[in-house]
Each structure stands twice: as structure tokens, then as C-alpha cells.
Known about the structure:
Layout: H1 9-15, H2 18-34, E1 40-44, E2 47-51
Antiparallel strand pairs: 1-2
Amino acid sequence: MVHSAETTVPAYLASLPDGRREAITTVLECIRANIPTGYEEVMNWGMISWQVPLKVETNT
């Protein structure tokens, strides 16, 4: 499985080749426009992921 050693989304995007960066940015823009409020965009497991912080959803 391919994954990144980058620890931030901007660093991950900057590390991608131009064509791949453009494609991933297009997908990210779509997700960002449609994901519910309160989700945090982070780098986990070597890829971009989203998490709901406990301050948003306390019932776990």
C-alpha cells in the first residue's frame, strides 16, 4: 500500500507530482464543500482523513 510520511495535508499536497496534486485537489475541494461542519481534515495512516473531534460529538 502506498502512503506518505508527510504529517500535514499541505505538505502532502506539495509532495505530489503536478498531475496527481491537481487530481487530489479536485477531489478535496468536492469533499470540503460537502462534508458536515465540525470534521477535521488530518493526515493519519499516511493519507488524508477526516475525524470528528470529541468537542463536536461527545457520545462515543
